[in-house]
What we know:
Blueprint: H1 5-20, H2 37-42, E1 51-63, E2 67-75, E3 92-98, E4 111-126, E5 129-144, H3 146-150
Parallel strand pairs: 3-5
Antiparallel strand pairs: 1-2, 1-4, 2-3, 4-5
Amino acid sequence: xxxxxxxxxxxxxxxxxxxxxxxxxxxxxxxxxxxxxxxxxxxxxxxxxxxxxxxxxxxxxxxxxxxxxxxxxxxxxxxxxxxxxxxxxxxxxxxxxxxxxxxxxxxxxxxxxxxxxxxxxxxxxxxxxxxxxxxxxxxxxxxxxxxxxxxxxxxxxxxxxxxxxx
Length: 166
């Protein structure tokens, strides 16, 4: 079977762009929860011990004697599991990590993706407002660098314009 040259040429740009996108970093578990943090906060018992891959913008880090907690404003993830920070937020959650976490490695405003299990919830506050935070016991976590966030987003644009040559 012979593939027409026009079809081959039309497919090349799509293949080139797909090759630029990084692969997902975590494999979803069979019991993966499809709900976002705002939904889980409404009925955390329904999602108890469910597996999640969530991400978002780091709000802050709190260290305790035996663990650390990172509060995140959740965002939807792209196909590479990078938070889509230009999208609307999906609530907040707390990533619970064993041991000490260096706050400089998890800077406020940074983007992060975690893989773990829902481990209940905790009442707290966002500013002066009462809030229920789902807790995620983290198995794996990744803070995204600016370079990683740009990968897969081509710096190519198309347009119509007028140019002047001198």
